[in-house]
Every structure is written in C-alpha cells, then in structure tokens.
Amino acid sequence: xxxxxxxxxxxxxxxxxxxxxxxxxxxxxxxxxxxxxxxxxxxxxxxxxxxxxxxxxxxxxxxxxxxxxxxxxxxxxxxxxxxxxxxxxxxxxxxxxxxxxxxxxxxxxxxxxxxxxxxxxxxxxxxxxxxxx
Length: 133
Hints:
The chain is globular, with a radius of gyration of 14 Å. Helices cover 0% and strands 49% of the residues. It starts with a strand and ends with a strand. The relative contact order is 0.31. The mean pLDDT is 93. The chain is mainly beta. Strand 4 and strand 5 (46-52) form a beta hairpin. It has no helices and 13 strands. Strands 2, 4, 5, 6, 9, 12 and 13 form a seven-stranded mixed β-sheet that branches.
C-alpha cells in the first residue's frame, strides 16, 4: 500500500500560481511513476503530470505532462524527503478541480497529449484547487 499526505491547495486568481506537495510512503522501486490526476465533480478523471524516478537520483527523473498543462506546470521530486511537488503557473479557471497524488504501475501516453489512468494503482484523498476571480 501507498500512503499520501497532500498539501498546498487553495484559491488563486486566474494567472496566478500554486504549488502542491505530496509526501509518500513508498520507495521509488515500488512504482513506475508518481504524480497527480485531477477531477471536477461529475466529470472524468484527468491525468495531469507524472514523474518517473531513476533509482534515487532526482535530477535524472523524467517528467510527463498532459497536453492541457504542459508549459505551465512543473513536476519535481525530492528523494531525500520522499516528496513530489507540482508547481502550477499561469492558472486558468479550467484548472479548477480536486487534485490527487497518485502512483502508476505503468504509464501510457496517447497521442503525446493524454496521460491515461489505466495503470494507476493508488491515490490520496485529494485537495481542492480553485482558480477564480
């Protein structure tokens, strides 16, 4: 099992920034990637970003992004703290959702744009991100 502790959500105006953090219990060897998906109530879940650890060398980790956030969001991992971060810049109202920290056993990216959730196995309780003026 994987346990997550998510933090950093809140309310921000369009164009603003927020940073999410997720402390997790598992070692990098126990999953393929760790990251975030989001969900608006009543709508399907959407993969946001995932980072693939390379052993325990964070600088060599490989990030993957959904096309909807690429260029605006940055995911990173602190191996010493067992924490993954999601820096969200240039936020838009359509980014409003509950964001969940999650792990994937495998990751499939379709059309270079969509991070699928078919390989996701664990996720946290989620935190609210609201982008509104």
